[in-house]
Amino acid sequence: MGKSVIHTEAAPAAVGPYSQAIVAPQGRTVYLSGQIGLEPETGELVSENFEAQVRQAFSNMKAVIEEAGGTLESIVKLTLFLTDLSKFASANAIMADLIPQPFPSRSTVGVASLPKGAQFEVEAIIVI
Description:
- 23% of the residues lie in helices and 28% in strands.
- By secondary structure, the protein is an alpha+beta fold.
- The protein has a single domain, classed as CATH 3.30.1330.40.
- The strands form 2 sheets. Strands 3-6-4-5 form a 4-stranded mixed β-sheet. It has a two-stranded antiparallel ribbon with strand order 1-2.
- Strand 4, helix 2 (88-98) and strand 5 (105-110) form a beta-alpha-beta unit.
- Helix 1 packs parallel to helix 2.
- It is globular and about 40 Å long.
- The relative contact order is 0.28.
């Protein structure tokens, strides 16, 4: 895809595996709905474990991206939703392990609750 990173010293540096901004080449923009850690086969949460839910949510997101004709490299923007912001570092570490560089832009939002009692949700914008 050839996305390029925008970085300025006039704004704070990223505090995780994301870029301040991304410029995407002209292409087809796809807006993905949020994914939580549900197992596709059962429709139930993969586990009560936060890290397992994060990994499953990213796996679900990857499946939707691939069905749309993209790859993880196609991501230009992620939004993470956490019910417990004290687990922010854990979500960062998993994201850094799964998402290729250059990292997309990203926002992280603390929320009171998520569907089915999930602890984590991820949504994405991709350009293919």
